[in-house]
Design brief:
The protein is of the alpha/beta class. The protein has two domains: 121 residues, 3-Layer(aba) Sandwich (Rossmann fold), CATH 3.40.50.2300; 98 residues, Orthogonal Bundle (Arc Repressor Mutant, subunit A), CATH 1.10.10.10. Helix content is 45%, strand content 21%. The chain has eight helices and twelve strands. Strand 8 and strand 9 form a beta hairpin. Helix 2 runs parallel beside helix 3 and helix 6 packs across helix 8. The chain is globular and about 50 Å long. It starts with a strand and ends with a strand. The mean pLDDT is 89.
Length: 230
Amino acid sequence: MNKMTVLVVEDDAAIRNLMEITLRARDYGYLSAAGGESAILAAASRNPDMILLDLGLPDLDGIEVIRRVRSWSDMPIIVISARSEDADKIEALDAGADDYLTKPFSVDELLARLRVAKRRILREKTQSISPVFENGDLLIDFGAGTVSLAGEEIVLTAGEYKLLCLFARHVGKVLTHTYITDKIWGNSLESDVASLRVFMASLRKKIEKKGSAGKYFQTHVGIGYRMNRL
């Protein structure tokens, strides 16, 4: 496959240069924008594979950039921002961001997040022709409505199965409490968030056997959950 192209949206020239050097060294193609409007134009006209996005842009808040790009594209968006409060992360993820990296960040962590996004892109190119989802030892047969782990079928409740399928469709992406409860229960009441924690505990007990806690699911405290791509 051709090398993937990353749109770097960052108004700080030093940080933008660091990301460009990192991408070039790892054989990614890249485009750059220092503002929100130019970023949207580049995303629409150049069609990059993914976006690295700062939120504090001089002309347009990054949250608005996410919303506008999401109105026509599902390309992975990784936020890289100095805003470190949970409320900021939740707002970005709810707007449609796939991941959130807080400044200052390490190059190794940035590359890890890019690899996750790359795997998502490659997976989605084949997902439409496959009725089966595989991740490590976990297998979901969407046609049959069955789940197995290392060849052994696992019995899930209807709610657990719906929750697992939601994670499978967004593997590698942080899903906020609000997003999950909206998809599962149709609203995001506080009682539903409490129910979600119960469902997650039950699902993890069935999927993550003894000695593999945290292998498939990662908790982002105060924000939500992620299914790891193995």
